[in-house]
Amino acid sequence: MRVDVVMPQMGESIAEGTITRWIKQVGDTVQRDDPIFEISTDKVDAEIPSPSSGKIVEIRGQEGDTVPINQVVAIIETEGAATGTAPAVAETAAAPAPASAPAAPAAATPAAAAATPGRFVSPVVKKIAAEHGIDPALVPGTGAGGRVTKKDITRFLEQGGATAAPAASAPASARPAPPSAVTVPHFEPGTTERREKMSRMREMIAEHMIVSRRTSAHVQSVFEVDMSHIVALRDKYKSVYAERHGTKLTFTPFFIKATCGALKAWPVVNASIDGKEIVYKKALNIGIAVALDRGLIVPVIRNADELSLVGLAKRTLDLGQRARTKQLNPDEVQAGTFTITNPGQFGGLFGLPIINQPQVAIMGIGGIKKRPVVINDAIAIRSMMYMTMSYDHRLVDGAVADQFLAMVQHSLETFDESLL
Question: Rounded to an integer, what distance in angstroms lies between the CA atom of residue 312 and that of residue 409?
Fold first, then answer.
């Protein structure tokens, strides 16, 4: 029997998707939930799982094709299955649980997310797990939405059925820049240049950045923050977070917590412009920019002010992992009200980012570096950081922006230890 594989609808407002890569080809045998192709929309990139086990007998959509939702892009031939249409849709959870399980074994995909309790587990995986007495929630899942595939659990068993403990994150000042999968162009003999088509994601990033520069009157402010207190708190509690909460304690949750307090005091920074109206947002939905080898994506932590520091730590790591493994749901990259980006993780002093429309401000976090500074007329070595904000001068004045940043600065330098 044959099963149609269709272009899934990755969100209410999305009417089409672009096929960026076929992971499987005609003639390949696939298991249910195996990733078979990748798509890119204006909101998210995703791996699309197979709706059924069988053999791929036809591919109708080619790489680079933009296809309407529900259009057939491939056909799988199965045994004993009824003919029909089975949309290949990445699992979408209304309120995805943060991934707090340990990191994957070295042989697994580096950024694979661990399966979250309550997340879908296929019958095949359940059977294998039951036969070996394994909790599927402990198996790192590389399938869409963090699903555990047959390959994942087989690899897990081959590795001895144990995952590595989460590694403690090094301070930003000592952490090397993560490896980047840079494509080195090949030049044919006698040629001096090479041309290739932009990826769909790169096209959209280029378009959004140009639109933002044309829309907003960009102005920037730069503040210097003494991060010595935060560095000391993180050093004190990072092992506690790993052992007690099963998650890393990075600097990002501190930035989010401090930012939420300032956004409540200065709601105009958490607003947008619609024509001649100012739209104030009640929710504090903080976008966290994640660098990918193919571009940039901004997953959103909704109602970030309602989360504890532990909750923020788990949520940021979960979203970052799934962003890098193309497992984000469309809702997780929408409705942001303020964005934080961290170019400092790559060693830079600071950056002046472009506003993420329709927001009116974006914060840039610089690298944390030890420098000599003057404190009470004496020179001391402190962990210092530059913090920037680009803001839309149509709505946010310089005085407001600077007072906002001053509040974030004060919150970081005097961070309440009881919040940990």
Answer: 19
